[in-house]
Amino acid sequence: MRKQKPSFLNEKTLLNRLLKNYALILVSLILIGMVSIGMNTYWQSMGRGKITAQEAVDTISRSINDKNLQGKTMMNGLTENQDKINNLNRYMDTSISDYLNYSYDQQLETGNYLFLPGQVKNFYTMYDNIESIIIVLNSYNDYYLSSAENKSGKKIEGTPRLNNKFYLAYPITNPVTLEVLGSFYIEFSQKDIIDSLTHLTTFDGLSAYVFSNTGYQLLTYTEQNNVLDQQLIQQKMKETSALPIQKLAENNILEHLKTTSGFDILVTISKKKVLTQVLFDLRILMLGGLVLILLLLYLLYRTFTKYSQQVDIIMGSMALVSEGDLNTRINEQETQFELKELSRGINTMLDNIEQYIADIYKLEIKQQDAHMRALQSQISPHFLYNTLEYIRMYALSEGSEELADVVYAFSTLLRNNTDQAKTTTLEKELSFCEKYVYLYQMRYPDRVAYHFEIDEALKGLVLPKFSIQPLIENYFVHGIDFSRNDNAISVKAHLIDGQVKILIRDNGKGISPQKLALIESKLKTQQIELHDSIGLQNVNERLRAYFGPTFLMTITQNESKGIAIELSFDESISQN
């Protein structure tokens, strides 16, 4: 049977006339829009340039104020009292070993530990925009230099070089006599300012300059083709120590700000660049409008001439489905508009039907597999227990008591793992953990030590099974170093002021502060996101669900090595 063409493609119909009128309206609106946008772009570009220059000045000013505040905070942290001034003098005047002894002595006397390399190193942690720190004391020939590569810093003989770097300088004064003792310099990264200026505007001709109150050029942000303005500024600053504002304003949109702290901020945008950008945008606008008109006319023609073909594609696919071919899908790339939505809906429906069939099939397979495993579990545990007990008794008869103990410990672990009980007592849980550690001690003799301690009142405490074992297992998987002979782990359970506290400590490799902070933040939430800390996550979620909101898991680093994990909850909750 031959298909007929839709009538609106063969003759002058109302739909055909409406489509032509619709195309004429679209073309007229596009032309009017292009003219309006072009005129509006021309009149507003200069205004946008002015606003952009002001925003650039404000951005630089805020950044400098922030850096200035950071610098003052850091300087005060090193020089705010006489003890800290003495500490600086002692660092510059003695060797590092003598200075270290001095710092320890001062800590014993005053309770404050002032160690200059450590204090400066903390600044890099607090602020990520520091490049280097320089301390110059007038009484010494050496100066102190710390950089991002050597955060602890060192003393260097001579005078520091500050050329072509964003340094902010602060006088170091005696807090009592107000005598100027030296200078404190901080080199800040220019990246945040440059990134802000780069993303601030679409104009290519933006330039920015920052000068200190002494005329020192702290920042230059400009394009290579704007060398003339840069040379003019440098020349006038050398001659008169003043910026050529009027000369620059002839060819640039200009904004200038002198901050209260004495910084000169100058931002210029080339008027020539603005004009070039406007002309380029108008040219692109006209070309884009012409292409849009032609594209719309083409799409209108193609859309309605292919409408019937797209319907045939959908109907043909549905016919195949009705014949039982559920793998058939409509090619959405061959449909448009509402037909595309219809095709997507049909495909989604077919995907769901196929998924439902697969889910039902997989469920039946899982049920059969679960039934088989249940039958096997009735036989395998008893067979393994009897076999292990025979091996243990045989070892005893042969006089190998150590082997018998190992077999007994392993048999106990196996029996505990296959036991279907969901809870246990704290005494049994720690006994299970002790046997687990004992097996490692037998495997690595003279390398592992352990100690378990529990209050008498907590031996009968009921808690979920495997509440502590995963934490000990984490130590043997991630923290222990089998090349050492002093590996140790301890578990202590005490009742303190009505709270149960269980402390697991080791002297292993430990974890980084960043990862520790991440784990602590995740443990405080209800979301399961600790992909690389499954044992901690499992214990935390199970005990939180069992003991309620009073339960808390905390993880800290030990003084030397390793970590400490503390589980705490109210005694009243544990008795329920």
Automatic annotation (TrEMBL):
Entry GO CC: membrane
An MF annotation (GO) of this entry: phosphorelay sensor kinase activity
Q: Which residues cross the membrane?
A: 21-43, 282-301
**Where's the HAMP domain?**
305-358
Listed A to Z, the keywords are: Kinase, Membrane, Phosphoprotein, Transferase, Transmembrane, Transmembrane helix
| Primary subcellular site in the record, as a coarse category | membrane
| Listed name of the protein | HAMP domain-containing protein
Species of origin: Enterococcus caccae ATCC BAA-1240
